[in-house]
Amino acid sequence: xxxxxxxxxxxxxxxxxxxxxxxxxxxxxxxxxxxxxxxxxxxxxxxxxxxxxxxxxxxxxxxxxxxxxxxxxxxxxxxxxxxxxxxxxxxxxxxxxxxxxxxxxxxxxxxxxxxxxxxxxxxxxxxxxxxxxxxxxxxxxxxxxxxxxxxxxxxxxxxxxxxxxxxxxxxxxxxxxxxxxxxxxxxxxxxxxxxx
Length: 196
Hints:
The protein is α+β, with helices and mostly antiparallel strands. The chain has five helices and 14 strands. The protein is globular and about 50 Å long.
């Protein structure tokens, strides 16, 4: 939290705003921390023979992966509170350990159908005030990759395309490596457009 936001030392906590209004402000990330994470993401695994450790998960037919440090929690689907006039792919807000977290179901946004045979789970991406939950299909898997596994970028749905940093081949399947900061910003932008 930056100075002047949330807590005014002279007068106490800042007044609360309506949930939808707060969401339409977009996700605000600490720019220095975001730049540091992006640089680390760009450099990770570029040395020959370096092993990339990723957490892979599915949303319908999409196979996505993130760095372990980009995820903060995996849980059964919590109770989610809907917000009026929100797009169908925005499930609403969930209370996780006393913190309100926006919950996105991007399957509809990405144009895929959930795997009905898989248990829906909530994967929370990001940390602190900037985190958000994604509805995923089943449990994530551990992936160990090297630069030799890198392939030409696979076809990503338009809302996801700017968030895919690379693609890899593992055990006969292609996986898209996500830039979590980009993804959360893109979801915030889509939400702002959808709520107008």
